[in-house]
Amino acid sequence: MKKIVLAVIMLCGVSAAYAQKYMTRTGKITFYSATPLENIEAINNEVACVMNGENGEFIFQVPVKSFKFERSLMEEHFNENYMESTKYPKADYKGKITDLSKVNFSKDGVYNVNTKGKMKMHGVSKDVELPGSITVKGDKITVYCLFKIVPQDYGIEIPGVVRDKIAKEIEVTVNSILEKK
What we know:
There is one protein chain. This protein has one domain: Lipocalin, CATH 2.40.128.110. The protein has two helices and nine strands; from the N terminus they run H-E-E-E-E-H-E-E-E-E-E. It has helices at about 1-20, 70-80, and strands spanning about 20-35, 40-50, 55-65, 70, 90-95, 110-120, 125-135, 140-150, 170-180. Strands 1-2-3-5-6-7-8-9 form an eight-stranded antiparallel barrel. The chain is elongated, with a radius of gyration of 19 Å. The two termini are about 30 Å apart.
């Protein structure tokens, strides 16, 4: 019995040693809203991400209060009036790279990929498919994705008084460096 338990432990250890896990807690996501009346940009450098290079599964978690704006009043309105970040402190995207065979994690290069999963924001989950790229450089990868979201799709209401100052679609950019663990 001891030999079987020892063999299982060794097998798990060997498979864990070959697993290609990539992580960060300092990922970067920005969003940009452009209208004729005002441009709004926010940056978040506290994004956590874990990605499994063997099966393509990943999760991005974004602390909503960590978005930083040019003006503190914008940040206050974002957190209190729109995102309700006390009630909904995190947003996340959990999914899988659907064409993982395109990526060679042992060869430096840029690989275009597609992802599919669930994005959860403001308490609303939606199925999404997003294109992106993975840049491999040594033991680090950079995950890049540019996409648009419609705030109303996630139950985020924009008051009429500022509706013309906030774009109908918000441009989101993910540009995060993950390290092999």
